[in-house]
Amino acid sequence: MKHARESNPATLPTNGTDLPDSALLIEAQDGAATGPEFLNRDLSWLDFNRRVLHEAVDARTPLLERVKFLGIFTSNLDEFYMKRVGLLRRQAMGLSAAGRADSTAATRQLTAIRKTVIELQQTQADCYKNHILPALAENGVRMLNWNQLTPEQVREAEAFFQQNVFPILTPLAVDPGHPFPFLSNLSESLGLIVHHPDRTQENLFARIKVPETLPRWIQLTQSVPQGQFHFVSLYELIQFNLGDLFPDMKVQDVMIFRITRHAGLEIEQEDVDDLRELVEMELKERRFADVVRLEHGPRPNPWILQFLTEELQLAESDVYELNGQLEYQDLRPISDLALPKLRYEPWVPQIPPALSDEEADIFALIRSGDLLVHHPYESFDASVARFITAAAADPKVLAIKMTLYRTGDDSPFIHTLIQAAEARKEVVCLVELKARFDEERNILLARKLEEAGVHVVYGMMGLKTHTKTALVVRQDPDRIRCYAHIGTGNYHIQTAKLYTDLGLLTANPQITADLVDLFHFLTGRSLKREYRKLLVAPVNMRQRFLELIAREVDHHRAGKPARIVAKMNSLEDRKIIRALYEASAAGVPIELIVRGFCCLRPGVAQMSENIHVISVIGRFLEHSRIFYFRNAAADEAQGDIFIGSADWMYRNLLARVETMAPIEDATHKIRCWELLQTLLNDQRQTWDLAADGSYSQRQPATAAQEIGVQQLLMQQTRQRNPAF
Question: Could you confirm whether 466 is annotated as catalytic?
Answer without folding.
Answer: yes
